[in-house]
Amino acid sequence: MWKVTGMAATLLLSAGLLMNPVGEVSAEVGEDSKRSTIHTDRVSLEASTVEDYEEVEPNDSIDAANSMEQNRWAQGYLTDEDEDYFTFEIDGDHRVEFHLALYSIVDGAYSTEMDLDAELYDADGKVVAGYSEYNNEYGYSGGFFLDPGIYYVKVMDEANLDNGVPYTLASEVAAKYPRITRYWGVDRYWTAANIARQDSSRIPSKNVVLATGQDFPDALAGAPLAEHLDAPILLTRKEKLPDITEQTLSTLDAEHVTILGGTGAVSEDVEDYIKDELNLDVERISGKNRYETSVAIAEHLSASDEAVVAYGGNFPDALSIAPAAAGKAMPILLTKKESIPAATENVLDNYDQTYVVGGTGVVSDKVYRQLPNADRISGKDRYATSLAVAKYFDMETQSVGLATGSNFADALAGSVHGVKEPLLLTPKSKLDEEVKQYFIDHQTTYFQIFGGDAAVDEGVEEDIKSIYE
Q: Distance between CA 221 and CA 311 in Å, rounded?
């Protein structure tokens, strides 16, 4: 709840109003209790000015917007059919996190009569979408990642009451410090479950994608399908559905499960158990091999002129590009190093543009030259390649995912957590130096680590924190 003292406004935007990323969140699972606990720090949004700013009418258009400094709060009134505009500038050289809050207080108590709402525009008058925006009886709150430049805020009362009650518009550029979120569990099945259970945007989730947690081939192309279905990715053993996966299907109120791969990856016993015991609809997408499976998955996606082509013999490159592929609705097709499998070759004519992820050590120039309008995205190793993907697709710099580069399971489950965010691979005990420099250059704020200490230990967290020391 917000509280106002004197002429300074302090806004406590908890997870209920301003969704993650906020503060530091840890999805922890104890070995004994087998229960997940979330720790969430609230973000304090504080306007420290001694006095507020009163709007000056007319300010009912972008051209007539009142100027407003960062970390200031303004008061105004909304008359009949009125809209108020304010403008501010984000200076500096880096993208910043910016918070807005709009509310009304009368005699020290919240006024909930008006239906207050706000909208943010860039210098060209285009709407800027926040990473989190909420509107309820108390008003509006929004969180944004903004590049330097001029912005405009439109304030309105959707109820159009013209009741003479003042509103308050508060803004803040958030202080820079690393906010680290770790999603983990006692094993890869728990970790995948916790990633799914903490993604409030997908609860409930009608659809769930299910992949084996024991090997990577059939799962490599799964992220675009999961995003297409608005579904999380859960993991299973070949012969038995783990208890935590079953519990999570219930938590998500799942109705339909899509299994990736044939019975060599996920047995008929698991499929029948989900159908008969859990009473869920089940669809299996598979082929005779990993290459046919990737094509079969592509056939379940919306039509696209672009496709990713990745090496099918290992996991790092395909998983590094998975969020970008999912976000752009591109299928991930698999290839061998020196030749294109028949299944993949047969569908290449469907695409005008292909993106080859990985260097010539995994996809040869011979294969590259056979692909339509190919562009190669690669680095000197798996860590540099994951960074090259982030740069190539100009992905979000203020919020990133991190997963071990030594195993596939955590990166697979995390690949659809945020499709606008890069998934960067990391050594176990420290950040790759180029990746660390990328964080320094962009003053990255939010870090989602997928996996426990056995995969990504505290040394990586300490490396992140050292950026801000």
A: 11
Strand partners, 154: 85, 119
Q: Which two structure tokens, joined as six digits, stand for 302?
A: 């919306």
Class level of CATH domain 3-173: mainly beta
Residue type present at position 315: F
Strand partners of residue 425: 403
Phi, psi of 84 (to 5 degrees): -110, 140
**Shortest CA distance to 432 belongs to which of 399, 459, 452, 397?**
459
Domain ranges of the chain: 3-173, 179-466
Residue pair 363/414 in contact (Cβ under 8 Å)? The answer is: no
Interhelix angle 243-251/188-197, rounded to 10 degrees, is 10
Instruction: Give the integer Cα–Cα distance in Å for 26 and 34.
Output: 15
pTM of the model: 0.80
pLDDT tens for the 469 residues of the chain, in order: 222 222 223 333 332 333 333 333 444 443 333 323 222 232 333 333 335 678 999 999 999 999 988 778 899 999 999 999 999 999 988 899 999 999 999 988 999 999 999 999 999 999 999 999 999 999 999 999 999 999 999 999 999 999 999 999 999 998 888 999 999 999 999 999 999 999 878 899 999 999 999 999 999 999 999 999 999 999 999 999 999 999 999 999 999 999 999 999 999 999 999 999 999 999 999 999 999 999 999 999 999 999 999 999 999 999 999 999 999 999 999 999 999 999 999 999 999 999 999 999 999 999 999 999 999 999 999 999 999 999 999 999 999 999 999 999 999 999 999 999 999 999 999 999 999 999 999 999 999 999 999 999 999 999 999 998 8
CA 71 – CA 76 distance, rounded (Å):
17
* Angle at 421 (CA atoms; ends 232, 324), nearest 5 degrees: 75
Cβ-in-10-Å burial (0-12, 13-18, 19+) of 407 comes to middle
Partner residues linked to 464 by β-bridges: none
> What is the distance between the alpha carbons of residues 291 and 465, in angstroms, rounded to a whole number?
41
